[in-house]
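Meet the record:
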Amino acid sequence: MVCVLLLGAFFVAKGQLRVGEVVAFVGFAQLMISRLDQMSNFINLTVSSQAKLQEFFAMENSTFHINKPENLPSLQNVKGAVEFHHVTYKFPNSSQGIFDISFEVKTGQTVAIIGPTGAGKTTLINLLQRVYDPIFGHISIDRINIRSVNRESLRKSLATMFQDASLFNHSIYNNISIGRANATDEEPL
């Protein structure tokens, strides 16, 4: 950009360009550079996301065969007590997983699951949502084994806050109510 300004000053001094033309060109050049930078960032994000998507689809198509018996009852009147009883899960073709995890979250208790990358935070949440089932042990909500209820009602009973949360360019009210189009004005408050 400095070279463009210097060349512009040179041509203005020679009378071959006017100051307005140089200013207009510099403005146009900045606009183009910012757009090219945005496109470059978008392409980089797309390429990096493609690898993650391929990994996700490979995982989804692999050995996660959860039995889906017909006519399982719905999970109803959830109070919110969650228990992991000696839960073990190991990823296929890997030594990674979680092993013999037991804990209890009482009704109304707030819990933060924290730890370094690869510690098993997402695995715990995926097990709770029955993305996959434990190899050993069981998980219960209000003392009901989650394998004995249908997954749709289970997932409707859960709310997860991910560490990479982001907000839309709207009001806080709109951000809170974004997941429920039919929410009343009082519900998100």
Remarks:
- The CA atoms of residues 39 and 45 lie 10 Å apart.
- The mean pLDDT is 84.
